[in-house]
Write a structure and sequence with these properties.
heterodimer; A: 217 residues; alpha+beta; 4-stranded mixed β-sheet; 6 helices; 68% helix; B: 408 residues; alpha/beta; 8-stranded mixed β-sheet; 13 helices; 8 strands
């Protein structure tokens, strides 16, 4: 005689719930670790930023002969903030259970905007010849066409940054973040669709080619 | 907001883990009795029915395999049904003279052939053997022992692939071992849901009282098993009883076979859906029917998600390539490679590990083979390529169901 082993249903359920909860907890732990890392990095960036901004103020107001140095420091900060943005994107892609990174992303965007304003000031005060490339993208695109164009534009802009180095300051901005300052910038440059790239006031929308950007620089 | 798809994935992970643990628990706790040494105290009379339609290449070997079995000859009757074959099947059968009973009839399908043979069969037990399958010498003797158990109405065997060599055959050999092993484990839940055509046995008086095989069903073997279960009777499998069958060696044949299985399974599920959660029907109502129905709906959701992601990624890749070419930039960059693991990575590793355990245990139980290093590439193909074909087969089956084309 074979007894129906109904106990296996419960045993399997208990085991499954335990393993599942363990896995989900591990996932939370991993994501919390990433968030921690991001927050630390943001804090460091804020300190770096305060330093760069203070240096800029010092050079602008007290010692204008150090303009070049101020510009270099600003570029260094620009590179760091750009690289950090890429890491943040990857972390966000991998975080499936939590969405706290979104807040950090907004903080990061505000930092980029402050960097943009500082770079603009420096350019005027120090008479620098770098140009601004503002890239407005959609943070969570639902349209596949927009999504794929953004992937390609990110590559094109990466190429451009490598090619032009300190001739440009590249600021990627999530246009759909509901931040007042972003809305102001969108109005200023008449950005209506994503992706859009603004090079020294000229707006290019859709799939942008490297040569189109080069022509504007 | 956590994405909706994340919840869908987690639900599927949960389901996958549950079924894996259920199977592995059943294996672990019954590992010493998977190949029970049941011996018949009485050898019942047995009628083996071999329905054949255009089987000139294999019918003689099938009959010989049954003739060569160690089942006492005075208790064994072989009825071969020529189901209106258009080839030389009839001539091949006639070569056996009076060693077999020949039933020559117009083509009416396998189920009807079996029903007609049932009417003339003299055995207390009926055995069905497909005309391209070859029972091992001792298979039938092992199987009849189970009929001594109270309420057992059907007994099946371990169906294995006859010839190996081609990749598709080898992959099916892996798969058939998993199926046989799983079927044995389901026995401990009274959940064996099919007694497959290559070699299965039934108590004749019972299946006659049930009205014989369902001629409208594409998989009369699944339907008969569900009918047996719905009458609160039991089904057993003997892993010592081996039957070797000709597995499709071309992908087209394989595809047709799997679609037919799906369609027959669907027909059966629809026929017995009313038994869901019926406690009076034992594990049939509490496990088999709910399992099939929930699996069906889960497959629908899974298929939807699978094809949504597949199509989305294909379109995305196409658009990215198109725009990258237009923009004159790289088609692929390593910079975009994301090596940060997500929660799904943990579960994927765990499920792959459980899948590997499945492979190891099933091959060990059925073939008594420890998987060797040289076998792993094929195991890998089985896990990561062969199984991926299933959603496409299911999609084709659903299409056939949707357009109402359930005939073969």
């Amino acid at each position: 005689m074979v007894e129906v082993q109904k106990d296996k249903f419960w045993k399997a359920l208990v085991l499954t719930v335990m393993v599942f909860l363990l896995g989900v907890s591990l996932g939370y732990y991993l994501e919390a670790g990433r968030l921690d890392k991001v927050q630390k990095e943001i804090n460091e960036l804020v300190v770096n930023w305060d330093d760069a901004r203070t240096q800029a103020a010092y050079y602008e107001n007290i010692a204008p002969e150090y303009c070049d140095q101020a510009i270099q420091e600003n570029f260094k900060f620009g590179d760091r903030i750009y690289e950090y943005g890429r890491t943040l994107e990857k972390y966000e892609d991998s975080n499936k259970l939590t969405d706290e990174l979104k807040i950090e992303k907004q903080k990061y965007t505000l930092l980029k905007l402050q960097f943009f304003i500082n770079s603009k000031n420096l350019k005027e005060k120090c008479n620098a010849d770098y140009k601004f490339v503002l890239y407005f993208y959609e943070d969570e695109p639902t349209n596949l066409e927009v999504k794929s164009q953004q992937v390609v534009i990110a590559r094109v802009l990466g190429d451009l940054k490598q090619e032009k180095g300190s001739e440009i300051i590249l600021i990627p901005l999530a246009g759909d973040f509901d931040l007042g300052v972003i809305n102001m910038l969108k109005d200023t440059y008449n950005v209506k669709d994503y992706p859009s790239v603004v090079v020294d006031g000229v707006i290019l929308t859709g799939n942008v080619k490297l040569e189109d950007l080069e022509a504007l620089l | 907001m956590v994405e909706f798809l994340t919840f869908v994935y987690l639900f599927f992970i949960l389901t996958g883990l549950y079924l894996s643990f259920l199977t592995l628990l059943l294996h672990y706790e019954n590992r010493n009795k998977l190949k029970e040494d049941k011996v018949a105290t009485r050898i019942p009379s047995l009628s083996i029915l071999i329905p054949a339609y255009n089987e000139e290449d294999s019918i003689a070997d099938t009959i010989n395999a049954v003739l060569e079995s160690d089942y006492p000859k005075d208790k064994l009757e072989i009825i071969v049904i020529n189901d209106g074959s258009k080839d030389n099947t009839l001539r091949e059968i006639k070569k056996f003279g009076n060693k077999v009973v020949l039933l020559d009839k117009k083509n009416s399908g396998k189920a009807d052939s079996l029903n007609q043979a049932l009417k003339i069969a003299k055995g207390e037990i009926i055995g069905v053997v497909d005309a391209d399958s070859y029972p091992a010498k001792d298979a039938m003797k092992h199987m009849v022992a189970y009929f001594e158990e109270e309420d057992v109405a059907a007994v099946t065997s371990a169906i294995l692939v006859k010839s190996r060599g081609k990749l598709l055959e080898n992959l099916q050999a892996i798969e058939y071992a998993i199926i046989a092993w799983n079927r044995k484990l389901l026995q401990y839940l009274e959940g064996i849901y099919v007694t497959p055509g290559p070699l299965s046995m039934y108590k004749k008086d019972l299946i006659l009282s049930y009205g014989g095989f369902d001629t409208k069903n594409l998989t009369e073997d699944i339907e008969m098993t569900w009918r047996v279960l719905s009458h609160n009777k039991k089904v057993r499998i003997d892993l010592r009883a081996k039957c070797y069958t000709t597995a499709p060696n071309k992908i087209r044949q394989w595809w047709r076979q799997r679609v037919r299985w799906n369609l027959g399974g669907f027909q059966t599920m629809v026929k017995y859906k009313r038994l869901i959660f019926n406690p009076r029907k034992g594990m049939m109502g509490l496990f088999v029917v709910p399992f099939f129905i929930s699996t069906f709906f889960l497959s629908l959701i899974g298929l939807g998600v699978f094809f949504y992601i597949l199509i989305k990624n294909l379109v995305n890749s196409y658009l990215i390539s198109k725009y990258a070419v237009d923009a004159g930039t790289e088609l692929l960059t390593f910079d975009e490679l994301n090596l940060n693991p997500s929660v799904f990575a943990f579960f994927a590793i765990l499920l792959i590990f459980l899948g590997i355990l499945y492979l190891i245990y099933s091959q060990d139980v059925i073939y008594k083979n420890k998987i060797k290093l040289k076998d792993w590439p094929q195991m890998g193909i089985y896990l990561f390529i062969y199984l991926i074909l299933y959603p496409f087969v299911t999609l084709h089956s659903l299409y056939r169901i949707a357009i109402g084309k359930k005939v073969w």
